[in-house]
Design goal:
Blueprint lengths: L2 H13 L29 E6 L5 H17 L3 E5 L10 H10 L6 E5 L2 H8 L3 E2 L2 H7 L7 H5 L2 E2 L2 E2 L2 E2 L3 E2 L2 E4 L1 H5 L11 H13 L6 E2 L4 H23 L9 H14 L10 H9 L5 E3 L4 H7 L9 E4 L6 E5 L1 E3 L1 E2 L5 H12 L1 H11 L15 H12 L1 E4 L9 H17 L2 H15 L1
Length: 432
């Protein structure tokens, strides 16, 4: 398989405007849209589904999808195999061991994009063209998203949603302590200046960041995007220079941001987001699954929280998408396909994304069914440039992402910017 060229083609497609096929562009058809019908359930039985949605709003989203699955396929029994750890940092290690030992779940969560190719290359997942065709295929799923899950004409997963990574969530009450308004800063420098104002006003933690390495990478990718711009950022994953002056500037500003961050109290993303919710921090950069966390805690948009693209990235949608696979050797392959049909249905995508804070991967789910944030994300995905997330598997395969994370974790500890940049260059040379 021409994996490297296919990954490059998929990433190049993501740069283009997504306006021709975007979530929320139409009104949902009553039974799933695109002429699709719900296939009859097979023999039923236990269906083991492996995810990392074990807490917070992610768990709520999975439960909403599970409810639809039970309604559509009552002969099946959903078996929750979730492993805690945001972005799958813990789950992926267990999944890798299970797949290596020929003990796969019936379906597992993966990220559309480069991460998916690891499983394809290892021969660990089966094509699901028949499922996608039944769901409506290219009639209801954006082409640029389908490109990221397709190799040699074979589709290897069913997308459940689209997320935006480059979002700042803020607490207006905390901002008011430093007379900072609701408007987004125009640049990273302006944002850093606001953080200094917060410090001067007695706010101990302007920026909440989880101690889990993936949450730090999540912040870093937004900083890279801000400094390099969309085209320069995407080029990093083809032939861009990871030791350039712009990357060095991004590392410098990332370090300055960390100087305003907490030193503990937030192991993973829910705890970091809760710091903003509880008024213990002013800002948190997190994907839009965070909006469900605010909603779950009874918080109201504009009154209790604000959001805007990470400074310097307005006009770009830093993209990731969750999808579900059919593992080779799944014990209940027919039940797994029932699950995939649920994941890809209009009903499933509406229920799941309303709960999780993301937007549907399908294009035929009504915009009006969703609250304000998700409507704004649908509009952005339709009109803005698209860039792939590193932390969430869209931009780089797991080995490369792991090398970036290792280098970043060392930098967070020792603050050696030159060594970090050198390590980033070495990781690109090794994996590209």
């Amino acid at each position: 398989m021409r994996l490297k060229s296919l990954i490059a083609a998929g990433l190049a497609g993501m740069i283009a405007l997504a306006g021709c096929a975007s979530p929320g562009g139409q009104t949902a058809a009553p039974t799933g849209g695109g002429g699709a019908t719900t296939p009859a359930a097979a023999g039923g039985g236990d269906v083991g589904v492996f995810t990392w949605w074990a807490e917070g709003s992610e768990k709520v989203g999975l439960e909403a999808l599970q409810k639809v699955f039970k309604e559509k396929y009552p002969k099946n029994t959903f078996v929750n195999l979730a492993v805690a750890g945001g972005a799958g940092s813990n789950a992926k290690a267990k999944l890798a061991a299970d797949l290596k030992n020929n003990n796969p779940p019936d379906s597992f969560q993966g990220h559309a994009g480069a991460e998916l190719f690891d499983y394809i290359q290892a021969g660990q997942i089966e094509p699901v063209n028949d499922v996608m065709d039944g769901l409506g295929g290219a009639k209801v799923f954006p082409k640029n998203l389908l490109d990221l899950i397709t190799v040699d004409g074979k589709i290897y997963s069913v997308p459940s949603n689209v997320h935006r990574s480059n979002v700042v969530w803020s607490n207006p009450t905390v901002l008011a302590k430093a007379n900072i308004g609701a408007e987004a800063p125009a640049s990273l420098d302006a944002w850093l200046a606001d953080m200094q104002k917060l410090k001067d006003a007695g706010v101990q933690t302007p920026l909440a960041v989880g101690t889990a390495p993936w949450t730090q990478l999540h912040l870093f990718e937004s900083v890279l995007l801000s400094e390099l711009g969309t085209d320069g950022y995407v080029q990093l994953f083809s032939d861009g220079d990871w030791t350039s002056e712009k990357v060095k500037s991004a590392v410098d500003k990332f370090g300055k941001l960390l100087s305003f961050a907490n030193t503990g109290g937030a192991d993973d993303w829910p705890q970091a987001t809760d710091m903003v919710i509880d008024g213990k921090a002013a800002y948190n950069v997190m994907g839009d699954w965070a909006v469900a966390q605010f909603t779950e805690k009874g918080k109201k948009e504009k009154t209790d929280y604000l959001y805007w693209p990470t400074p310097g990235t307005d006009g770009t949608f830093l993209f990731l998408a969750d999808s579900f696979t059919l593992p080779k050797g799944a014990k209940n392959a027919s039940g797994a396909k029932d699950w995939l049909n649920t994941v890809g249905s209009a009903e499933g995508q509406k229920a799941f994304n309303l709960a999780k804070g993301s937007i549907p991967a399908r294009t035929d789910v009504s915009v009006s069914d969703f609250p304000a944030y998700q409507q704004s994300a649908m509009k952005s995905f339709q009109s803005d440039k698209i860039a792939p997330s590193i932390a969430h598997g869209a931009a780089a395969q797991q080995a490369w992402s792991s090398d970036i994370t290792t280098a970043l974790s060392k930098y967070v500890t020792d603050k050696d910017a030159a060594a970090f940049v050198t390590a980033l260059g070495a990781a690109a040379s090794k994996n590209r």
